[in-house]
Each structure stands twice: as C-alpha cells, then as structure tokens.
Task: structure prediction
Amino acid sequence: MTGSAAVLATIGYGLAAIGPGIGIGILVGKTQEATARQPELSGKLNATMFIGIAFVEALALIGIVMGFLFQA
Result:
C-alpha cells in the first residue's frame, strides 16, 4: 500500500469506528435509564446490553478486517 492509500485507509477506518462508538454510547445510556426506572430488571438488562454491545462491536471489527482484505 502506498503512503497516500495508507493514510486514506486509516482515515476511513477512523470514520467507520465512529458509528459503533455512538451505538455503544446510546446502548449503555438507555440501559442505565431503564435500570434507574426498574432496578429489579438490572440483571436482564445488563445481559441484553452486553449482547447488543457484542453485535455493535462486530461492526467495527468487520470494518478493520475489510481494510486488511481490500488493500490497494
């Protein structure tokens, strides 16, 4: 990969990581709101939150793998 292509790939992955970062922030925030409203459901909410975080984080991992697979 040439110098400019490497820079563009780095910038592209940085931009691709913004989406999952926002998604995880929203997910955790909404889980905290739900726990504050119904503390008795905190165990179920946390389990569901971690499953959701795994799916959202998979988007970032797919983005970095695609960067490695499709190098110019």
